[in-house]
């Protein structure tokens, strides 16, 4: 009975992760609702000792937890304790990293990535519509067509979406149609990234691509990797 209850809690948690991934590019209010529910279900799921054992081996989770603890300790030295805690509270979403590391199943991981890309694509359709003057959404306008959130946050979301698509495109070997479809989606997202005015996401994307492209191609051809790295730097610099 206890194991069945835990399984149900874990299944619900995984479905909420898919909802969270879909809503992140589209509707931030859903993020505010689903993220705390996911964390609560993680505690309700139990198996704390097993989870801690996994987290000790998960370097990203350890880094996140140390970062949060360091920020909480630094607040104790602040003369404005309430303001310090409020500032630290914005890092609460980082706690999803250890939650997902110990609770997300492989099948739902793929579903979550697909849901995130669908959400990013739909949000970009709205952004393009604003950019071309077809509609107005909130405070968005053609000069700042970020329709679903602030342009700083949106640029980072699009950067992550573009990098996810790039990774999938590089993995789709010997499937020309699939690779072409991924390439089309990649171009659609990258153009949308540079249409929007958030420089933080653009810089993050360019920096990551400079590293990712040579690494991905080095497995096949070192000269091609070097040439592609130079081409990526030149092309993305011109786009910026």
Structural overview:
- The structure is a single chain.
- The protein is built from 11 helices and no strands.
- The longest helix has 26 residues, at 106-131.
- The radius of gyration is 20 Å and the shape is globular.
- Helix 4 (59-75) packs antiparallel against helix 5 (81-88), helix 8 (151-171) runs parallel beside helix 10 and helix 10 (199-218) packs antiparallel against helix 11.
- With 240 residues, the chain is mainly alpha-helical.
Q: Which blocks of ≥5 consecutive residues have pLDDT under 50?
A: 221-240
DSSP summary: helix tally: 11
Q: What's the alpha carbon Rg, rounded to whole Å?
A: 20 Å
Main sheet record: none
Helix content: over 70%
Q: What is the strand and helix layout of this fold?
A:
Blueprint: H1 2-23, H2 28-44, H3 48-56, H4 59-75, H5 81-88, H6 96-103, H7 106-131, H8 151-171, H9 176-195, H10 199-218, H11 222-239
Helix pairs in contact: 1-2, 1-7, 4-5, 7-8, 7-9, 8-9, 8-10, 10-11
Q: What does this entry show, briefly?
A:
With 240 residues, this protein is mainly α.
Q: Which structural traits does this protein have?
A:
240 residues; disordered C terminus; mainly alpha
